[in-house]
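Support case: heme C complex. Customer-provided input:
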Amino acid sequence: MQDALDGRALYEAGCASCHGSDGRGAPPDRIAFDDPLPDLTDCSFASREPDPDWIIVSKAGGPVRGFSDVMPAFGEAFDDDQLQSIMDHIRTFCTDRSWPRGELNLPRALITEKAYPEDEWVWTTGVNADGPGAVINELLYEKRFGARNQIEIALPFGFAQTREPRAAGNGASAADWGAGLGDIEIGYKRALVHNLETIFSFGTEVKLPTGDEARGLGDGELKVEPFLALGQIVGGDGFLQLQAGTELAVDGPEREAFWRAVFGRTFTSGEFGRAWSPMIAVLGSADLEDTSRAEWDLVPQMQVTLNTRQHVMLNVGVRLPLTDSDVRSTQLLVYILWDWFDGGLFDGW
Ligand code: HEC
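Agent response - structure generated as follows:
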């Protein structure tokens, strides 16, 4: 008698006719459709897809995540345990364990850097809710290479009110707004260790003094920012993300330490639906010469997936200064994130 939880046998019975016994896809002359089949042995592709996403596609068919309807729905044929055992078999096709699994790709928080290496475009906008007017935008491009590495470049630009009011008689006016470039950042990140629940990475960013300091759009100094980042899955849908590092001026005495913690949980609406991830972040930073005067912020936020493929996301939050709130502004923050490896920006809606 066939073991009901023999993933290989179930895969052979239900999936191999199209996906091939080796996971590379059946030869074109053996199938009656033109849609390309994914190569399940390709670690770069397979490792980043979490089991729950693949189970949903297998249960409800390709269209549930914006894929072809040639990929059938198996919800009637297999129960959850059987689908899980099929996934466990599919996972044997990628034999290189150095690729961190997609389960560890936790929802991206505002400000706090993730431990997971990503292929993303992120557009963030921050608007001061009080104090001097400022609208800061950042366009961020991240690209993975190899199993564990990622490079990134961030281009900030914005509009801000000049901090010093003009000389008497000239009065501050709408004319005091100016546009400018911020400090361009180039970064590298590497996942050092990971298992199915934890990922720990090292990264470093270089901040170029391209910003318009007079407009508050940069520090005007070359800075290096080494950091450590941790992602931890807690009880299935919950997560904790930590980041800590230092920001060191290359030519000056400035040395700052920062630490950030994000707690969150993902909820899905409907069995196959949208993912909502409320998060709360605590941010701290201090001058290394005088750590007694640390600055603290709280950032409540909500990330939501926008499309069926779930690779375009929105996050809305507010950065509330807990210290020096008389001189530091409350900031409204929004980002749009496109995980470009999963498809075009307009695919899978
Ligand atoms: C009739 C052919 C066919 C059968 C049978 C089939 N698939 Fe598929 N499957 C496809 C095609 C075609 C795609 C690609 C869809 C696309 O990219 O738009 C696909 C895609 C997938 C994906 C999505 C991968 C991604 O891009 O994230 C998963 C997961 C998957 N199949 C799992 C299975 C499993 C598990 C079984 C067996 C229980 C199975 N398939 C049986 C044709 C099939």
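The pocket of heme C is lined by residues 14-15, 17-19, 35, 37-38, 49, 54, 57-58, 62, 67-68, 70-72, 74, 86 (CB under 6 Å).

Case will auto-close in a few days if no follow-up is received.
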